[in-house]
Design goal:
The structure is a single chain. This protein has 6 helices and no strands. By secondary structure, the protein is mainly α. The protein has one domain. The mean pLDDT is about 80.
Length: about 190
């Protein structure tokens, strides 16, 4: 079951995202501004959301630079992977939370969080199972040292001097384009609100 969700999560997330857009567009009962606030608070809310969006987008690029092309070759334990085992999912959650800040709807915020839990948590657990089978004791040691989802900045390990990352830029480029589009989406939502 975990493998099914892991393999199909992107498809499910896109379908559920389209469903959410249709639900918001065609249902007058779902108010995009169900959290009432004054102009000053709205401004702070929007700034907080934009900070989360930018940090999430930059974080996804940072984590992608470390993992791209190495996922099945060795345990990645430098950079963001030295403080958290699943930085891409943490940064994705930050992006999801930023959309909640932009839309200002409790219903949509809960919907997005539920989507994240239903599709990313099973994937995360499946990845850990596969990586344990693939790398054995190396990954078990890594799991004992590095927290799963809440970063521990005290154990950060930077890349050694003169270390070169062998990455496939095409995949990282997709993450960068996705990040730019998400930031644009955030701004459009804020403007429409």
């Amino acid at each position: 079951m975990l493998q099914f969700f892991a393999k199909k999560r992107v498809v499910f997330n896109r379908i559920l995202g389209l469903f959410l857009i249709a639900l918001v567009y065609f249902s007058p009962s779902i108010n995009m501004n169900s959290i009432n606030m004054e102009n000053y608070n709205t401004f702070l809310w929007n700034i907080s959301g934009m900070i989360l969006m930018v940090l999430g987008a930059i974080g996804r690029i940072w984590a992608s630079l470390f993992i791209e092309g190495h996922k099945t070759k060795k345990v990645i334990s430098d950079g963001p992977y030295s403080i958290i085992r699943h930085p891409l999912y943490l940064f994705s959650l930050m992006i999801i939370l930023s959309l909640f800040f932009a839309i200002k709807s409790v219903f949509i915020g809960l919907y997005l969080l539920t989507m994240f839990i239903l599709f990313h948590i099973p994937t995360l657990l499946n990845e850990e199972r596969v990586l344990t089978e693939l790398y054995g004791e190396d990954y078990v040691h890594y799991k004992k040292r590095v927290p799963r989802f809440f970063p521990n900045f005290l154990i950060y390990r930077k890349v050694e001097k003169n270390t070169f990352l062998n990455i496939r830029l095409k995949r990282v480029q997709h993450v960068m384009i996705e990040a730019i589009l998400l930031i644009m989406l955030y701004e459009i939502i804020v403007i429409l609100n």
